[in-house]
Amino acid sequence: MIDTALFYVFALMTLGGGILCITRRNAVHAAIWLIASLMGVAGLFLLQRAEFLFAVQIVLYIGGIMVLFLFVIMLINLDTAAAERQYSGQWKLALGAVVLAGGEIAWVMARGLPGLGAAAAVQDGGEGGSDGNVERLADLLFSEYLLPFEIVSILLLAAIVGSVFLARRRTS
Amino acid sequence: MPPLPIPEHPPVAWYLILSAILFGLGVAGFLFRRNIITVFMSIELMLNAVNLSFIAFSYQLKQVSGHIFTFFVMVVAAAEAAVGLAIILTIYKNKSTLEVDEINSLNN
Amino acid sequence: MPDGYLPIFVFLPVAILFPVVTLFVAKLVRPSQPTPSKLGAYECGIEPASNSRGRYTVRYYIVAILFVVFDVETVFLYPWAVRYKQLGWFGVAEVAVFLAILIVGYVWAYKKGAFEWV
User: Fold this and answer.
1) Is CATH 1.20.58.1610 correct for C6-112?
2) C9 strand-pairing partners
């Protein structure tokens, strides 16, 4: 009952933020609405017991990536950027893509998927016994997904080198 | 408009439909915006839609693997944002424009 | 939703409503007689020289990038900290490799002068 009510609230946040994000002319406003949308998604994560990802979504996405976006918007000259044309002539293609996605959803809803209509059973520990979400995630991350974990550090190294190199060259 | 259905817990299909709509919004923004930064934000919207369905399936199937995939998607999104925004800065410095259609120097 | 998060969702509207209601009530109660000297910058303040939406230097961006990258690193350390005892020395070795690779990037950025504030 309360879960469903919260689902509606977060879904409204997610979709409203998303629609406003892609329609606002001002890039700063678009970024703010994207943050609202991301917070809605974080709430939906929490509703599905992904507590760790709820925190990561806030810390990493909203606190990190969106701040980076706002920095870049501030770094470039807003006035000239806002004066440029904002919408491309591809809106017909965009409309087609949205209609396609909507048709797909309608088809799935009309046909129904076995088992997907049923309410998800409340996940109480699962095979991990009394362990919480973070513990189970840590167990999996440091055993089965060990190699991806180590490769992430190489990805981050590449991100440091690439972005610092690109941003440094600008100043010299 | 019919009254909103109120089950005890929202079924997983709702999350999947929401995720599909969010992905559609991302695609639309990606196609019809010209400002390269907003195009980039639309990509973030699409990534979030995918994350949402990962979590929905993982909740339904009682597996934590979906959470790990989502975690890695977020990390890749962070790396992508860092490098992508640095590229946008360089483009803006060289061409003084943010319009995607103007950035066509690789075209013929 | 996991139990124990309900207080957050109770606090959220309270936290949003409190400043709004306070400011609104204050607006109702206080007298309002604006004069030019009252609206101007106070004695020790100065008139703003330019638009606050001006351009920042790119050095802030480098710091922001490094913040995001090491933010990701910290997030990865959190599950390790939760399972520190169970993972033991194996976990320490894994995280040491992870950190060693990232420290290479840190040292590179340092050598490159990304932290110098000219």
Assistant:
1) yes
2) none
